[in-house]
Amino acid sequence: MCGIVGILGTRAAAPLLVDSLKRLEYRGYDSAGVATLEDGRLARCRAEGKLKHLEDRLKATRLTGRTGIGHTRWATHGAPTESNAHPHATDRLALVHNGIIENYRELRGELEQCGAVFASDTDTEVIAHLIDLGLASGAAPKEAVEAALRRLRGAFAIAVLFGGDDELMIGARRGSPLAIGHGDGEMYLGSDAIALAPLTDQIAYLEDGDLAVLIRTGVDVFDADGRPVERPPTRATVTSLLVDKGNHRHFMLKEINEQPEVVGHTLAHYLDLTGGRCKPLDLGVDFARLDRLSITACGTAYYAGMVARYWFERFARLPIDIDIASEFRYREQPLAKKGLSLVISQSGETADTLASLRYAKAEGQQVAAVVNVEQSTIAREADMILPTLAGPEIGVASTKAFTCQLAVLACLAIAAGRARNVLPEAEEARLVAAFAEVPRLMSQVLRLEDGIEAIARDLGRAEHVLYLGRGTSYPIALEGALKLKEISYIHAEGYAAGELKHGPIALIDEAMPVVVIAPHDHVFEKTVSNVQEVAARDGRIILVSDEAGISAAGVNADRVVVPSMPAEITPLVYALPVQLLAYHTAVFMGTDVDQPRNLAKSVTVE
Ligand code: G6P
Questions:
Q1: Residue 397 Cα to ligand 1 middle (Å)
Q2: Cβ(354)–Cβ(378) under 8 Å?
Q3: 2-23 residue pLDDT tens
Q4: Residues 457, 428: one domain?
Q5: Per DSSP, what are the bridge partners of residue 37?
Q6: What is the rounded CA–CA span in Å between residue 35 and residue 186?
Q7: Ligand 1 site residues, Cβ closer than 6 angstroms
Q8: pLDDT band at residue 49, thresholds of 50, 70 and 90?
Q9: pLDDT digits 0-9 by tens, 113-138
Q10: Helix (H) or strand (E) run with residue 214 in it
């Protein structure tokens, strides 16, 4: 799972490739590499680790070719070493790949028997050797690529350069996304439009199974059956400016601080704040006739879906099935024809979520997608889109996209309640007024940062941390634990507070911090009993609650005192202290907050 880019240009390609790769680092940063063609000669430069290593290495390497391909890698097959870095090459070609080739072992065995010598442990290299074999037996580049692709099982987007031909590049996709950029006497290809934004805004997206033959002045596209097809470019709306950190030390901190604004925008998009009602949603879905709604997502987006379950069931009396996408896609769950599925994804490219969308569509369901990237594959394949207006999220650990997802889902649940005639108009008005307060309350919580930072220093000394919550605070506990482990590498688990006694209580001792998310709501007293159970075993409690909750809890604890607010909106506001707690713990530990080890922003492989 990686980012790829290709340029048939009129200037030296290598610096432009690196600039594009910077925009693709969200897809992985284990290694990076470029290959260029100059007077028919292929030259490569690759480096382990982040892009800056490749940039340093390029300073000492003369790559002046105007035709080139580039890659930033998230390691799947083979360690993140230079020899496993893309582009992979033979004497006749160089290739970059995003995706996974599932049958690479058998292909590799076969190719080795034919004399191919492999230089890496990757699945990708089999594609290079398969194409090479075709070229060696006299096939033209397009035919050699087509023949190789027919042998592959799995997902891929590829770009290939051919030795001896500076004027040609071939791209193809199955499963993984690939965009074609049209320039002035130049042509480009990339994993997304953002990668190509400094080069052009004229973008065409390849459909699944497409193969594109690019020359400097244009492109011929062939569909999965080999028929010539038109994929006309349209103007992409992504900004050509690289998003910067502003005055913040990390993108994550900047994005945490943007939440009052972007959540405000998102709420204003869906709510008529003056009229105290939801704006009409033109979804083409009659919520009144739905028996259930299934929600699918991964990671943080899944936790947003878990919160939404409580809202849909309470506001709309609509039963919810919720699944992790990687489980849903193989469960063969029977889905009601003409029912509704909801997928949630920041990037809109997560492979498992996309596969779930396709499964639901194949079962005859309508699919609505809550997405942050409106040009993404999920956005394009869904029947309806519910955009989150979070803006580009760069930090790998999702923050503002999460709270914007919550904002959209809350509005949808309220709208569903009205459509199903189970949420009275006055209750709708009360909820809309409550959600309208979220940006202000978020701003207040951001002012608690200094106190949270002090608690984080203590947390940074722990080996394990437990997060507890009940009701809608349970998914926030899960999200808090996920944030902490992904950026600080401290082992953390989120639990439903009521489950404490069924296992995790055995872990409690004086060295075990327990973060309790406990707004003073209808389940508060139950949660307090669980807090007492921790206190009785000398556990270190970090209580995130409001004044009323803190005084009613009556335990010795580190406190994060959040303003009081209606229970329905607490997930949006309580997300912020857990994000800040994870952030400051990671800063204290000295980890790479924005690009934590082994992770990627967008996971385009299974
Ligand atoms: C990765 C990211 C997470 C994200 C998850 C789902 O694991 O690191 O932050 O929540 O993918 O991504 P999506 O783009 O589908 O929301």
A1: 8
A2: yes
A3: 899 999 999 999 999 999 999 8
A4: no
A5: 42, 67
A6: 17
A7: 298-301, 345-347, 350, 353, 396-398, 599, 601-603
A8: very high
A9: 999 999 999 999 999 999 999 999 99
A10: strand 211-215
